[in-house]
Design brief:
single chain; alpha/beta; TIM Barrel; 2 domains; nine-stranded mixed sheet; eight-stranded antiparallel sheet; about 20% strand; globular
Amino acid sequence: MAVSMKRRSQQIAANQQEYPGRYEMLNFPPGQVLQDLQRQRDALLSDLAGKVESGCHGTKLDMRNLSPGCRHCVTGGWSCLFISGKCNCDCFYCPTAQDEIGLPTTNTVTFRHPADYVAYLERFGFSGASISGGEPLLTPNRSLGFIAAIKRRFGAGMHLWLYTNGTLASEDLLLQLRDAGLDEIRFDIGATDYNLKPLKRAAGIIPTLTVEIPAIPDDVERLKGLLAELQDAGVQHLNLHQLRLTPYNYPHLQSRRYRYLHGAKVTVLDSELAALEVLQHAIEKNLGPAINYCSFVYKNRFQAQAARRRNAIFFSKSYESLTENGFIRSLTLLGEKARLAFQVERFAEHGCEIGLWSLSRSGEQLGIHPTLWPLVDLDGLRLRLGYAAARQLDAVTYRNPFVAVEFSSRQKVIVERGRVMADIELNLQQAELYAATFLSKRQAVDVLPDEDLWEEITELEWSRSGLQEYF
């Protein structure tokens, strides 16, 4: 289902609001130019079809040989700890100011003690963790302390990697990182004008060697020329992610005259084309390490989805369910008491577990689990859909239901459940269409009516497929 004109207008308005007084200066290509650029992107994807593996609903490629850390991200098992907020480089593409060390943080939760972060990883069931920043090697003892604590607790059961610009990656420090248990190291060589000396020092010391950089349009030819050298240096994986505009990096990106795309956030159109062009060149010439294009839509859709699913376990009732997109779904039948009582009797006769339904005190509302749908007779009933999301917070807002999840004797995190939209009531025909599409999945989403109602439901039920639409 394509993004509707209404949704496009909403995203454009949000993009305008994020850059008041500066939005008009951004280069969003006009209609015909944009269509030509989308055809250029489609031609690249067509050429790559059959040569690479596309995954995560078409938002990530090539999937054939992802780094171990990326595999944990794809399965939703990754936690990123920002060990400090200070960096010693000044990259033009950096999305935020990097000028304060601060406390190690993830999902608004801060950690003074490595043991508390270890307990957090265990409580929320992570399988992979990364140490990021800022520049983690500006605080080497802090980084080493957290790495050692994580590996002591989990060993090989937790894949652990670290991001660095490499400027402080001496051989001695790399050996300390290895001995502490670091499994993978990722170098941002874009921060050092593509200096390969630090990563060459890491080769043979840290088990997995990865380069992770933004796809910079100005450097496409230079990067193509480096592919063979990267492979010879021992680099196994090259992650190219899409440049995103932020209020902080706005003046730096704008000075380069990039072209932009509207969406959930403003992204650099030329960055996506650059990543795909490098991937195409590597495949054609059989050059370099395995390349992974990490698009903004992948991060925006799938990383957020993983967080919702992880937090939902603290709130989802036995008769509720999770959508593919990680939202808590409530199905409620509405109607006369006798009709709903008949449904309950039918569930009981078929031996269904009692926890799979919940009849209100008034007897006029019946919450049901999707597995009961084949036993539902909709005659005389209506269906109400409700969607909620669970998120982690560092403090209680008192606006929504919440639980305090303790993960150590010193720390806890607040998980809050909030509705993402007003409940939707469907008539008989709409309910049958909904069930065929999202419960039994007998019908493709593409044949749903082109209406705001169905676009809203689809966004909550499924992850949208494909790379970003150009508008």
